[in-house]
Each structure stands twice: as structure tokens, then as C-alpha cells.
């Protein structure tokens, strides 16, 4: 492996692509709402139409493109797939290498507000980080996947390889949502190299052990009920992407309004319940930047296909031995993580619960996210 295998990367969306977006938005056919209905049936048309109007007329992609390009970015190819990543080193020579892994419908945009706080030299006794923030294979600036078989395990192996290419022999990993699946897998693949795994939005699956289930607290049982409610009322996107990704890919790749609705629904459903609208939890231009990344890179379909791989990966659902890498879990308001269930699978040494912030923790509560990451890794270095 030589340094030539990693090349500098700059985000630049061609003007023609911006024009195409604006033209498509202007030609959108808007669905009508049924009387006296709201978010319980999906994104209300009036809300979506107003947000799309802002995307077309008020949102400045070039300003947000420049914000991305303010950080060093690179591109490499691993196992036949492109991997784009930000690599932001701290001025502290003793900083800990740390990979941050986004989920769906996220992107590297999720972490823009925590790059500065995590890389700045820490106070005495604190911890600072050299950050590696990849676009998952098949997502965002990594570009669409060109073949099947990109399971979470294969993605984890690719990200372990990325850290090797960067010369990091010992490092931490943080992940949320899909990243909370991939980060622990990296620890299982390279336990001698991964010093710790920190996760948020961790899904903890029910166990068949009657003793464990009987010992759950009232609060833990409530989270189990919330998980069932989520599957029954909010899991349609997962079933579609996990079973018929190519069908939804056509809609998402052809209609920016459809892509916007597909993602902004999650910013409504998964953010802190105290927020009535998505932009009450996350700046609306930051949401539109995330949506724009999917739109301009044409990766909505590719990302959907990774759900199919997850659904059909035998290794994903087979019983596993308990992981050995120290694991920290941050639980925000909409998370359904249950500690006794997590401890059956992970070596949980740190557990934090917060009363603000939701699924998109680094976007919604960057201060809490940053502090918890620092606290967890401070005990490991």
C-alpha cells in the first residue's frame, strides 16, 4: 500500500446538477392531504411543499459545500468500493485516533458540529482526537455500490482496512444507527487494535432467556414496548429498503421532493419529542445538506440496497459470543437501548442516559455527544 492509493478530495457539485434540482422541484406534482390528517400518515404535503420551496429558493448549497471543504477530505478504493472520508487531525500529538460512523439517513454531515470540539487540544486530564469520518460504502461521496454483497461485516472490514492505510494501529470507534451495528463489528474483527467502541441509537434485540426478561425494570419494559410500536408504526422504510430496494430506488433517484420526504420524515419521527417540527431539533439547512448529499451523489438506492444485504445476511442474525472490546452506550430520548440486553452481546463498561437529544445525537445535542465520547475514551487511554 502506498500513499498514492489515497487521494485528496474536494466536493464540487456541477452547476448543471444544481439547475436540474431546481427544475425538478419546480415541476413537482404535490400529493393532497386527506382532511384532518397530519404526521401520523407521513409528511404533510403543506409542510413538504414549503420545505422544498426553501430548498429551491432559500438554501445555498455552495455555502454548505464550502463548509464541508473546510475540512481535509480524501478518497480511496477498498475491496472494489469507493470510500470517501474526512481526516481531521488534532494539534495535540497525543490525541487518540477515532473513527466516527454515520447511519441512515445520515452522512458525514452529521458530525460537522463535533469536529472542532473533539479535535481541539483537551484540558489537562482530558482527551482529544484525530478524527476519521467516512462516508459508508454506497453512501454519499463514496458513491453508489456496483455489486451486491456489501453486508455490515464487509463494511466493517473495509473500515478496519482504512484505518490501517492511515497508519493507525490503535484507535477508537464511534457509531450511531447503522454505525452502531458496524462499530462493534470492527471491534470483533480487530480486538487487538480497537481500544473501545462508543455507540448511540443502539438497537438491543429481545432475548429468549426468561430470567433476563423477567428482571427488566419498568423503564426497560417501556422501551421494549416502544420498540414494538416503532416496528408496527414507523418501520415501513426498513421493510421496503430491506425487501424491495430497487423499487424505491427509482422513486428516490428521480424525484427530489420524494427524496426529501423520505428523509425528513425520519427527522420528525426520530428527533427529541420536545421538537414539534424537524427544524426545531436540527437546523433546517443542515437537514437539507444531508438530503442534498444523497440527491447529488445518487446514493439513495445504493443505501437502500445495504438494508437488503442486512436482512439477508445469515451472519447478522446468528448468535454471537459476547464481544470483548470495552463498549460505551449513550442513550438519548428516542433510543430503545436496554442495558441487560446490550450486556449479553457487548462488553458494556459505560452507560449514559440523557433527557434531551434524539436519534441524531451529534446533530441535536453535540455538547452532550462530545462530552460522553470524551468521558468514555478518557478511561481507556
Describe the structure in your own words.
With 381 residues, the chain is α/β, with parallel strands linked by helices. The protein has a single domain, classed as Alpha/Beta hydrolase fold, catalytic domain (Rossmann fold, 3-Layer(aba) Sandwich), CATH 3.40.50.1820. Helices cover 47% and strands 14% of the residues. The chain has a nine-stranded mixed β-sheet with strand order 1-2-3-5-4-6-7-8-9, sandwiched between helices. The two termini are 29 Å apart.
CATH architecture: 3-Layer(aba) Sandwich
Strand order of the largest sheet: 1-2-3-5-4-6-7-8-9
What Rg do the Cα atoms give? Answer: 20 Å
Number of beta-strand segments: 9
Looking at the structure, the CATH topology is Rossmann fold
Within CATH, the superfamily carries the name: Alpha/Beta hydrolase fold, catalytic domain
Whole-number tally of structural domains = 1
Separation, N- and C-terminal Cα atoms? 29 Å
Q: Output mean pLDDT.
A: 96
Helical residue percent band: 40-55%
Largest sheet: 9 strands, mixed
* Count of DSSP-assigned helices: 18
Order of H and E elements: EHHHEEEHEHEHEHHHHHHHHHEHEHH
Short description:
The chain has 381 residues and is an alpha/beta fold. The chain has 18 helices and nine strands. Helix content is 47%, strand content 14%.
Layout of helices and strands:
Layout: E1 7-8, H1 15-26, H2 45-57, H3 61-69, E2 73-78, E3 81-88, E4 96-101, H4 112-119, E5 129-134, H5 152-165, E6 171-176, H6 178-189, E7 194-200, H7 210-214, H8 218-233, H9 236-243, H10 245-254, H11 256-269, H12 278-281, H13 284-297, H14 300-311, H15 314-317, E8 326-331, H16 339-345, E9 347-353, H17 361-364, H18 366-378
Parallel strand pairs: 4-5, 4-6, 6-7, 7-8, 8-9
Antiparallel strand pairs: 1-2, 2-3, 3-5
Amino acid at each position: 500500500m502506498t500513499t498514492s492509493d489515497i487521494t485528496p478530495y474536494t466536493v464540487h457539485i456541477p452547476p448543471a446538477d444544481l439547475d436540474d434540482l431546481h427544475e425538478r422541484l419546480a415541476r413537482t406534482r404535490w400529493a393532497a392531504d386527506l382532511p384532518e390528517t397530519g404526521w401520523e400518515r407521513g409528511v404533510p404535503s403543506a409542510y413538504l411543499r414549503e420545505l422544498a420551496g426553501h430548498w429551491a429558493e432559500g438554501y445555498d448549497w455552495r455555502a454548505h459545500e464550502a463548509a464541508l471543504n473546510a475540512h481535509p477530505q480524501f478518497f480511496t478504493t477498498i475491496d472494489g468500493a469507493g470510500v470517501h472520508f474526512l481526516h481531521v487531525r488534532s494539534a495535540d500529538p497525543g490525541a487518540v485516533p477515532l473513527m466516527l460512523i454515520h447511519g441512515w439517513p445520515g452522512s458525514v454531515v452529521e458530525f460537522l458540529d463535533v469536529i472542532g470540539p473533539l479535535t481541539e487540544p483537551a484540558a489537562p486530564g482530558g482527551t482529544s482526537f484525530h478524527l476519521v469520518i467516512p462516508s459508508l460504502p454506497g453512501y454519499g461521496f463514496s458513491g453508489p455500490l456496483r455489486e451486491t454483497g456489501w453486508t455490515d461485516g464487509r463494511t466493517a472490514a473495509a473500515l478496519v482496512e482504512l484505518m490501517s492505510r492511515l497508519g493507525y494501529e490503535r484507535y477508537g470507534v464511534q457509531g450511531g444507527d447503522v454505525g452502531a451495528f458496524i462499530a462493534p463489528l470492527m471491534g470483533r474483527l480487530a480486538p487487538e487494535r480497537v481500544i473501545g467502541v462508543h455507540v448511540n441509537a443502539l438497537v438491543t434485540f429481545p432475548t429468549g432467556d426468561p430470567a433476563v426478561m423477567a428482571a427488566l425494570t419498568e423503564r426497560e419494559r417501556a422501551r421494549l414496548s416502544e420498540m414494538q410500536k416503532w416496528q408496527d408504526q414507523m418501520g415501513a422504510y426498513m421493510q421496503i429498503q430491506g425487501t424491495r430496494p430497487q423499487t424505491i430506488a427509482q422513486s428516490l433517484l428521480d424525484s427530489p421532493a420524494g427524496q426529501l420526504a423520505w428523509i425528513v420524515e425520519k427527522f420528525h419521527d426520530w428527533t427529541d419529542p420536545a421538537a414539534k417540527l424537524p427544524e426545531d431539533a436540527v437546523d433546517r439547512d443542515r437537514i437539507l445538506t444531508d438530503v442534498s448529499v444523497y440527491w447529488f451523489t445518487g446514493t439513495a438506492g445504493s443505501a437502500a440496497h445495504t438494508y437488503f444485504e442486512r436482512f439477508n445476511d445469515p451472519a447478522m442474525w446468528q448468535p454471537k459470543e459476547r464481544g470483548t472490546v470495552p463498549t460505551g452506550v449513550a442513550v438519548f430520548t428516542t433510543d430503545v437501548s436496554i442495558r441487560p440486553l446490550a450486556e449479553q452481546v457487548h462488553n458494556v463498561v459505560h452507560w449514559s442516559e440523557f433527557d434531551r437529544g434524539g436519534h441524531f445525537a451529534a446533530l441535536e445535542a453535540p455538547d452532550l455527544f462530545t462530552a460522553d465520547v470524551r468521558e468514555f475514551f478518557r478511561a481507556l487511554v
